[in-house]
Design a protein that fits this description.
Blueprint: H1 2-17, H2 19-34, H3 37-48, H4 52-76, H5 80-88, H6 93-104, H7 106-131, H8 136-145, H9 149-177
Length: 179
């Protein structure tokens, strides 16, 4: 989640600030997000081998786009009067970005973080479906194979509770940052 969010934020800032890079790269970024991650998982296993790395990459890919899109949108759409004020004060592009655009867009950026956090659970579980021998996704596959319905439901409840707790933690962080 952290890896996907960091890259999503950085790419969102870069694409939001540069129309050239946005026109050049955005079609490829969107195309990469349209591809089902479940279909990419076997390729990632072939390229990266079994273990944690393919799971991290799948999860990061799932988390990347929501934050990129939200960050790019908030960087591009800033209050015109505030932008004029920064220009009048001869603020550099860097100062305008970090002192105006990012703080003004923080609610939208944090929304992207919340969405990507929920999707991180999906990405991690999907990754474990494909290539893990342990973890909650692997446990679901094992329960399915042995037709252990109570275990499958128990794992689904655990995933739901962990997702809810992490989401509420992110809501708490958001409230603290936006005071």
């Amino acid at each position: 989640w952290v890896l996907g969010s960091v890259f999503g934020f950085a790419a969102g800032v870069a694409l939001g600030e540069s129309a050239y890079w946005r026109r050049l790269l955005l079609p490829y970024v969107v195309a990469s997000q349209v591809l089902p991650k479940l279909a990419l998982a076997p390729l990632l296993l072939l390229w990266l081998g079994f273990g944690t790395l393919p799971l991290v990459v799948i999860t990061a890919l799932v988390c990347f786009f929501p934050l990129l899109e939200n960050t790019m949108t908030c960087v591009r759409h800033v209050d015109r009067q505030s932008l004029d004020l920064f220009r009048l004060m001869h603020a550099s592009r860097w100062q305008t970005l970090w002192l105006l655009k990012v703080p003004a867009g923080l609610p939208v950026i944090l929304t992207g973080l919340r969405v990507s956090l929920v999707l991180a659970w999906v990405g991690a579980i999907v990754g474990e479906f494909i290539g893990a021998s342990q973890g909650l996704g692997a446990l679901i596959i094992a329960a399915q194979g042995s037709m252990d319905t109570p275990l499958m439901f128990a794992v689904l409840v655990v995933i739901t509770v962990l997702g809810w707790i992490s989401y509420q933690g992110m809501v708490w962080i958001e409230r603290s940052l936006l005071k």
